[in-house]
UniProtKB/TrEMBL annotation:
Residues 271-303 form the DUF6576 domain. Belongs to the peptidase S54 family. It is a multi-pass membrane protein. InterPro entries: DUF6576, Peptidase_S54_rhomboid_dom, Rhomboid-like_sf, Rhomboid_protease_S54. It comes from Ravibacter arvi. Residues 68-214 form the Peptidase S54 rhomboid domain. GO terms for molecular function: peptidase activity. This is Rhomboid family intramembrane serine protease.
């Protein structure tokens, strides 16, 4: 058990490891909810578990949302069903890895968070304006990272539409077709038993598409997320010890914060020789042979007007 906690601590402390941290956070919340559900069910206090769950689920009803505004964030880190979290985390890893490699860690996190927010807003908006949902708006609540994962999935498919995954029984399949299949599936189920969840999927997918399209024109929708992340890091960054240097005439004190490295910072715009070299490498060895920096340079070059 000690070895497991040490391994988890090591993974959490690694730099440029936001994708693994997102998966770990979702997994920890799932396990905590599972233990609470088992415990309170055995104690014949299932209502207590439901009360805890409602602190995380985003409600469709506006009065309840006003009392629990934090749920528009917490809902996309919480799952109840094991297969729900399993497939969400698998898709997040597969497609999030591509965003991380080509656009950097910060943009992958921003895409996940903005996708979750877009999913919540779509769900709330449609449930409150559509006559079809008026009878259930007061009792409907949603949880799960699907909208955030859809944003990452569609974002990756928009950025790299012809990138292929080798699927069991199907062989190589371009990711644009994988994303399209799941969008159509959610659209077909948008008036079914899980209508709210599928509507959120579509909201997340739309955000993922526009995030990449805007980024390709030089407009980064993730800037507010980066600013919040930077402020959070500054708030909790440990101050270095004060160093006191004595000289014959003066006493000098140096203190302050070390400037953090920006793991998600975009590389500089490459020149034409660099681009030609990267393209030659692709023609000889394929996309997979590129380093993370080369992939980001290729993307930056595609933004030239």
């Amino acid at each position: 058990m000690t070895g497991l906690f040490n391994n988890l601590k090591s993974e959490i402390n690694k730099p440029d490891n936001a994708l693994v941290k997102l998966i770990l956070l979702n997994s920890v919340v799932f396990l905590a909810l599972l233990l609470l559900r088992i415990t309170f069910t055995l104690l014949n206090q299932a209502s207590v578990y439901q009360w805890v769950l409602d602190l995380l689920r985003v409600p469709a009803a506006l009065p309840e949302l006003a009392r629990k505004p934090w749920t528009i964030l917490t809902y996309f880190f919480a799952h109840e069903d094991i297969f729900h979290i399993l497939f969400n985390m698998l898709f997040l890893y597969w497609f999030g890895r591509l965003i991380d490699e080509y656009l950097g860690t910060r943009r992958m996190v921003a895409l996940y968070i903005l996708g979750g927010l877009a999913g919540a807003l779509t769900y709330i908006l449609v449930y409150n304006i559509s006559p079809y949902f008026q009878g259930v708006v007061g009792t409907s609540r949603m949880l799960g990272a699907s909208a955030a994962v859809y944003a990452v999935t569609v974002g990756a498919a928009t950025l790299l539409p012809n990138y292929t995954f080798s699927l069991l029984l199907l062989g190589p399949v371009k990711i644009k077709y994988i994303a399209l299949f799941y969008i159509i599936l959610s659209l077909a189920q948008s008036i079914g038993p899980n209508a709210g969840g599928n509507l959120a999927h579509l909201g997340g997918a739309l955000l993922g598409y526009f995030f990449i399209k805007m980024l390709q024109t030089g407009n980064d929708l993730g800037k507010p997320i980066y600013a919040i992340g930077n402020a959070w890091e500054r708030l909790f960054r440990k101050k270095p010890d004060i160093r006191v240097t004595y000289s014959a005439r003066t006493v000098q004190r140096n203190a302050g914060y070390a400037k953090p490295a920006n793991p998600g910072k975009s590389v500089e715009m490459p020149d034409q020789d660099e681009v030609d070299s990267i393209l030659d490498k692709i023609s000889q060895s394929g996309y997979e042979s590129l380093s993370k920096e080369e992939k980001q340079k290729l993307f930056r070059a595609s933004q030239r007007k």
